[in-house]
From TrEMBL:
Keyword field contains Nucleotidyltransferase: no
Protein name from the UniProt record: OPA3-like protein
A single Gene Ontology CC term: mitochondrion
Annotated TM spans: none
Pfam families, alphabetized: OPA3 (PF07047)
Biological process according to GO: regulation of lipid metabolic process
């Protein structure tokens, strides 16, 4: 019951993070200081991706890369931050899920260890009980044999367990 509710909660958080990311995209270009910051990030990202593409396709990498115009840079950086926000939320939820499942697995393993220890202890107790029973059986057998030896030897004469008188004639 807990697992489906948790999964539903993570799905809800991911769904909620998308409108928040869209709001971040809209607000990113409005604040002047933040706007300049994201423009610089967008320009650096543009230079990096263009250089990687040129290397991949075998073109010259020392050619001048034209900077993006300000509007396009704000748009790209806003999209980048929006996607970064969504992936960050998804990553945090994934890490939390992995951590939660590893704790659950550790609890299961601890329970298995305790059950194994209980079974080992029960096995030791049963082995001890078996030894005691074997010893008692051995003692009873020795006692019975001693009784039979004495009975046949006739040393129990006159004892309530002694040989019957009719056997003395034998």
């Amino acid at each position: 019951m807990v697992l489906p509710l948790f999964k539903l909660g993570t799905l809800a958080l991911r769904t909620i993070s998308k409108p928040i990311a869209n709001r971040l995209k809209k607000e990113a270009g409005l604040h002047p200081t933040f706007r300049q910051f994201i423009i610089n990030i967008a320009q650096a990202n543009h230079r990096f991706t263009t250089t990687v593409q040129r290397r991949f396709y075998g073109h010259a990498t020392n050619a001048l890369i034209r900077p993006l115009d300000e509007g396009r840079a704000v748009q790209l950086a806003s999209e980048l931050f929006g996607e970064l926000f969504v992936f960050t939320v998804a990553g945090i939820l994934l890490i939390y899920e992995v951590h939660r499942s590893s704790r659950a697995e550790a609890r299961k393993e601890e329970k298995r260890k305790q059950e194994m220890e209980a079974l080992k202890q029960k096995n030791k107790d049963l082995e001890r009980e078996l030894e005691v029973l074997k010893y008692r059986q051995s003692a009873q057998a020795r006692g019975y044999l001693d009784f039979v030896k004495l009975w046949h030897a006739g040393t129990l004469e006159g004892h309530k367990w002694g040989r019957p008188s009719y056997m003395n004639a034998m």
